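Reopening this one. Same input as before:
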Amino acid sequence: KLRKYWDILKRYTQFKLSKVELDVHAGTVLGAENVPLHNELVRGIFQNALMGTINPSAMEAPPTLALDELDPRPAKKPK
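Same output, byte for byte:
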C-alpha cells in the first residue's frame, strides 16, 4: 500500500493526476479515515515548498570528528 500511495502522490506532483483523482486514489489506498492525514501531508509539502521552509533538523550542522577519532587502531604514545 505504501508504495502505491507514493506512486499516486508522485503522479500528482508530475501533473499526471488531478487533485480529485489524487483524493479518490488516496482514499482507496489509505482508507477514508486517513484522508485528512493525507490532505495535511499534501498541504504541508506544498506550504514548505512555497515558503522555502527547511526541515529544522537539516539546519543543524552535523557533528564532526577529528581524523584520529576515525582510526580504529590504539593511539601511539609519544616518545
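So the earlier flakiness isn't reproducible anymore. For the record, Confidence is low (pLDDT under 50) at residues 65-72.
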